[in-house]
Amino acid sequence: MTSTEDKLIRARRLAGLLALAHLENNHTATLEVMDEAADTVGFPPLIAALTEGLAEVLVGTAGYDGAVATLNMTINDAEMTALGKDSDNG
């Protein structure tokens, strides 16, 4: 196993722990996971692992096309908000 593969596996573990801490509303565990990420894999691999998990859940629940549509709506809403427009009111 390469060091990159090892880092990705550790980042996936931390992403799972972070999601569980959030679901359990455990702020102490959340901070511990974030500290461990900062000390080991860094935040970019953690974010990549969280994104990978999000994509898997979206595809698993909404299918590929639904996942893409959901993400595009999220992006569009954020862009409209950044422009100072409420996307629900045009």
Overall description:
The chain is mainly α. 82% of the residues lie in helices and 0% in strands. It contains three helices and no strands. Helix 1 (3-23) runs antiparallel to helix 2 (27-39). The longest helix has 40 residues, at 43-82. The radius of gyration is 16 Å and the shape is globular. The termini are far apart. The mean pLDDT is 93.
Mean pLDDT: 93
> Helix- and strand-based class?
mainly alpha
Q: What share of the residues lie within helices?
A: over 70%
Strand fraction: under 5%
Biggest β-sheet strands, sense, barrel: none
Number of helices: 3
Q: How many angstroms separate the termini?
A: 51 Å
Give the tally of β-strands: 0
- SSE ordering: HHH
- Radius of gyration (Å): 16 Å
| Morphology | globular
Low-pLDDT ranges: none
TL;DR of this structure?
The chain is built from 3 helices and no strands. With 90 residues, it is mostly helical.
Please supply descriptive tags for the structure shown above:
about 90 residues; mainly alpha; 3 helices; about 80% helix
